């Protein structure tokens, strides 16, 4: 094939992708939200407001990405928000213990963490992945329903978080946490860039590898996938591990912004993560969905909340509107599922 | 390097309280009338604190006091005069219908940092003030919002926005960030927890927006003002009352979250008051998180295991009602040794608690009024005025007046004249039938 033909094919693929993108109603909803924002509030387009909006989307977006992985396999993970907080608490607690062994005092003046942040972050990530693996083993090998397994995990992790902190916060000190929580590059907060990085990795995994397609296969028809030779249990464990890892990453982003972590943080965020994934078109029955659309739904959700905030809409009405949107999204998801089965 | 921890923050707040007086940036208040309840209670706090510092003869109380580190919290908790030499007397304050609860409210402190009705500061300008709190589902917090909204509505050039962050600290931070982006003129908040609210408050202050916290504190050292309650007087009065009516007995404690200001100062003040009385024994110690159901369960369990409970100490009104329900359900109201009544001690002067006092079921309550939102609004307006060079800034620390305990019959306990439920005009929440 000649170079010209290659180029032509590539251009055709790109234009097809752009056309497909423009057909996505989420894109149009985001554009509409922007237009409405610009018309209704003089503050909407300010760099500070835009940075706030996308920064606020990072932690919940990461939770939603993890949730997307689990939902694709036809399972659910109710423990994501508890994992998010628990992982950071364990990260700080274990790093502090390591410090004690090394004769270093990394918790000062009661509850300020001044230890090496990179070590704490690594332990946080490992803890999140570990929690995910436990969930996955319970679901895939012990055959516990994912709803039950992760609900029990949620309760246990919330309790453990209180025990490890004795109900008090850890203050997170140091330049690394400031960098993650506060810095902005070309209008993009670091937390949001971390979210984009996780999205890229997940897109590469799901769309660019054979292993990725197997997650869809398991969610679409698990028995058929098994007969096709896919070791489904391993993939289910992997999906939960990715969800746990994303939750830990969300924990790092969230707590770096608040400069502290404590047990009650993020209560109920698991439901928001499910809502965003479903609004993004992920089927609750598994097999359908894309991290890209979850990303779009996250941005749309953050824009919506920002507009409500700028308009001064009370939280009760915000909840009502979110609930209505969710009902519509679940309805569409259910219709899609029925059409797929037919 | 500045470090944020509980002790530093509390000590920092104490420094905030003292610094303006030392630097002369705030007019020294006139000496308070020695007979005012605020001064009398501050004197008693000093007396019992000194005694407890010397030592506690009751080993059981002393052990708990030491184990939970009450000394650190109590030492750092500010006790002092009221701003501008204000003297509060029972009967003061305005009466109005709460904009949110639709209930009739008599707010005790509307004459504190007074501000006449009408336009404020520059009448040609409109000032936008945001009020963020948690809990449109909680009577105490609705009353807090009621008083804030009432004060804002008295000034036609104030544009007032109220947001309920629904106990989500991250959301409260996001609300504050949105108001920063919108260049609000002032922010008043009720933070549920200290730690996560420091960074957003610091960002607002850095953006030149004055911020005032109500009741609870944030981890910000830069906050414009803190309107603080009278936790110390609450716990102390519970102890004084108990000492007055009994010689000892087994106590069940229903406490708030470990480490919360309400728990550490109220319970600490209570333990200081009884720490040198030999007859008391802490038989049960529970953290029931301000929840009636948890207090019910903890008390019911304690009653199962302990035959001779004499006292139920509760750090809040919800806990006290939960404890009372458990005691009544177990048929144990009059099961204290010698056939006496179990003494129930409460905080928070809801109408429901007051009714139980009038009925003789709860024995005393130390009022902790939510009707302080108006002080926060006036303080933030004064801060905005100070920024514009129109007036002096209010003090960093604005103590609310100590309030006398409420008992079924009027009593005089170490100089504190208690009031009866029918004399107490400031109870909040829905009427109890």
From TrEMBL, chain A:
Pfam families: BPD_transp_2. The chain crosses the membrane at residues 26-45, 57-74, 81-102, 114-137, 144-164, 184-206, 235-256, 268-288, 295-311, 317-335. Its main location: membrane. It is found in: Cell membrane. It comes from the Bacteria. It is a multi-pass membrane protein. InterPro entries: ABC_transp_permease. Keywords: Cell membrane, Membrane, Transmembrane, Transmembrane helix. The keyword Nucleotide-binding does not apply. This is ABC transporter permease.
TrEMBL record, chain B:
It is found in: Cell envelope. Keywords: Signal. The keyword Signal applies. Residues 1-32 form the signal peptide. SUPFAM superfamilies: Periplasmic binding protein-like I (SSF53822). The keyword Signal applies. Its main location: other. Pfam families: Peripla_BP_4. Residues 129-387 form the Periplasmic binding protein domain. It comes from the Bacteria. Belongs to the bacterial solute-binding protein 2 family. This is Sugar ABC transporter substrate-binding protein.
């Amino acid at each position: 094939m000649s170079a010209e033909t290659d180029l032509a094919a590539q251009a055709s693929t790109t234009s097809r992708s752009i056309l497909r993108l423009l057909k996505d109603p989420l894109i149009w909803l985001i554009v509409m939200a922007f237009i409405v924002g610009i018309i209704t509030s003089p503050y909407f387009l300010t760099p500070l407001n835009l940075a706030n909006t996308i920064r606020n989307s990072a932690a919940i977006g990461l939770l939603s990405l993890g949730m997307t992985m689990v939902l694709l396999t036809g399972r659910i993970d109710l423990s994501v928000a508890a994992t998010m907080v628990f992982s950071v608490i364990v990260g700080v607690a274990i790093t502090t213990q390591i410090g004690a062994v090394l004769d270093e005092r990394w918790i000062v003046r009661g509850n300020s963490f001044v230890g090496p942040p990179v070590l704490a972050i690594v332990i946080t990530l490992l803890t999140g992945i570990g929690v995910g693996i436990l969930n996955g083993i319970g679901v895939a090998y012990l055959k516990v329903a994912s709803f039950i397994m992760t609900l029990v995990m949620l309760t246990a992790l919330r309790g453990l978080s209180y025990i490890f902190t004795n109900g008090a916060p850890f203050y997170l000190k140091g330049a690394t946490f400031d960098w993650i929580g506060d810095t902005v590059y070309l209008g993009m907060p670091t937390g949001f860039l971390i979210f984009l990085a996780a999205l890229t990795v997940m897109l590469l995994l799901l769309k660019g590898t054979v292993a990725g397609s197997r997650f869809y296969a398991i969610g679409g028809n698990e028995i058929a996938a098994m007969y096709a030779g896919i070791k489904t249990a391993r993939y289910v464990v992997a999906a939960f591990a990715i969800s746990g890892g994303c939750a830990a990453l969300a924990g790092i982003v969230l707590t770096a912004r608040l400069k502290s972590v404590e047990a009650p943080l993020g209560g109920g965020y698991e439901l928001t993560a499910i809502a965003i994934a479903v609004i993004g078109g992920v089927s609750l029955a598994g097999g359908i969905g894309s991290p890209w659309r979850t990303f779009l739904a996250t941005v749309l959700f953050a824009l919506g909340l920002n507009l409500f905030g700028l308009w001064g809409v009370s939280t009760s009405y915000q909840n009502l509107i979110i609930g209505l949107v969710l009902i519509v999204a679940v309805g569409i998801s259910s219709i899609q599922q029925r059409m797929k089965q037919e | 390097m500045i470090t944020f921890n509980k002790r530093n923050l509390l000590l920092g707040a104490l420094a905030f309280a003292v610094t303006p007086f030392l630097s002369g940036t705030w007019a020294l208040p006139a000496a308070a009338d020695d007979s005012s309840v605020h001064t009398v209670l501050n004197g008693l706090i000093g007396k019992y604190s000194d005694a407890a510092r010397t030592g506690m003869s009751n080993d059981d109380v002393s052990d708990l006091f030491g184990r939970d580190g009450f000394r650190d919290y109590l030492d750092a908790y500010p006790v002092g005069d009221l701003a501008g030499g204000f003297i509060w007397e029972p009967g003061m304050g305005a009466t109005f219908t709460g904009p949110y609860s639709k209930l009739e409210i008599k707010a005790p402190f509307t004459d504190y940092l007074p501000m006449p009705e009408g336009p404020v500061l520059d009448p040609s300008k409109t000032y936008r003030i945001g009020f963020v709190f948690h809990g449109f589902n909680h009577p105490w917090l609705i009353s807090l919002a009621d008083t804030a909204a009432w004060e804002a509505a008295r000034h036609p050039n104030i544009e007032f926005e109220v947001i309920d962050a629904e106990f989500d600290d991250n959301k409260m931070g996001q609300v504050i960030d949105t108001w920063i982006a919108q260049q609000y003129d002032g922010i008043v908040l009720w933070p549920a927890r200290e730690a996560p609210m420091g960074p957003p408050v610091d960002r607002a202050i850095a953006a030149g927006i004055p911020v005032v916290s109500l009741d609870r504190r944030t981890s910000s050292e830069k906050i414009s003002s803190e309107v603080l309650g009278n936790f110390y007087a609450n716990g102390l009065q519970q102890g004084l009352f108990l000492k007055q009516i009994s010689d000892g007995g087994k106590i069940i404690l229903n406490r708030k979250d470990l480490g919360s200001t309400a728990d550490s100062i109220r319970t600490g003040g209570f333990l200081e008051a009884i720490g040198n009385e030999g007859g008391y024994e802490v038989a049960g110690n529970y953290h029931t998180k301000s929840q009636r159901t948890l207090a019910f369960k903890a008390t019911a369990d304690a009653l199962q295991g302990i035959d001779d409970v004499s006292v139920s100490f509760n750090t809040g009104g919800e806990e006290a009602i939960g404890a009372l329900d458990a005691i009544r359900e177990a048929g144990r109201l009059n099961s204290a040794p010698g056939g006496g009544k179990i003494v129930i001690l409460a905080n928070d002067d809801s109408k429901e608690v007051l009714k139980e006092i009038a009925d003789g079921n709860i024995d005393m309550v130390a009022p902790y009024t939510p009707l302080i939102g108006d002080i926060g609004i006036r303080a933030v307006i004064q801060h905005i005025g100070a920024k514009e060079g129109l007036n002096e800034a209010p003090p960093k620390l604005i103590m609310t007046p100590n309030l006398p305990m409420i008992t079924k019959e009027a009593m005089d306990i170490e100089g504190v004249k208690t009031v009866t439920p029918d004399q107490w005009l400031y109870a909040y929440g829905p009427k109890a039938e």
